[in-house]
Design a protein that fits this description.
With about 120 residues, the protein is an all-alpha fold. It has one domain (about 5-115). It is about 80% helix and about 0% strand. It contains four helices and no strands. Helix 1 packs across helix 4 (about 55-115), helix 2 (about 20-35) crosses helix 4 (about 55-115) and helix 3 packs across helix 4 (about 55-115).
């Protein structure tokens, strides 16, 4: 299963709450900040370099496009994983409820058979 960093989870949460245009703007801000800090995504770098046929100058120019696409893809994957997890949590809670209910019914049956009504 994919593990997301705290930073990635925050990014995904931030962009999910924005309109598409604002989300794109926010992604550009994030990528600009990453670039200024020298924090490059290896996959996006390789894709940019490949697209630029090894030309590093062109690769640097195309890096943001690849990084933004990658962040969008990761955000979509994260949303799917979160949805599946919420569903699994809900099913587990329902199962716990059903088990507790059955135990309570069984206990009530046992108590009723031990102490029959006097009529």
């Amino acid at each position: 299963m994919v593990e997301f960093t705290r930073k990635e989870k925050k990014i995904f949460g931030d962009i999910a709450a924005l309109s598409k245009r604002l989300a794109d703007d926010r992604l550009y801000e994030i990528v600009a900040e990453e670039i200024s800090q020298g924090d490059f995504d290896a996959v996006a770098q390789l894709k940019a370099l490949e697209k630029a046929n090894g030309n590093e100058e062109l690769a640097r120019a195309g890096y943001a496009r690849h990084r933004i696409r990658r962040l969008k893809d990761l955000a979509a994957e994260y949303a799917i994983i979160e949805k599946v997890q919420r569903k699994a949590d809900k099913e587990a809670e329902q199962n716990r409820h059903d088990v507790a209910w059955e135990k309570a019914r069984e206990k009530a049956r046992e108590e009723a058979s031990e102490d029959p009504l006097p009529w």
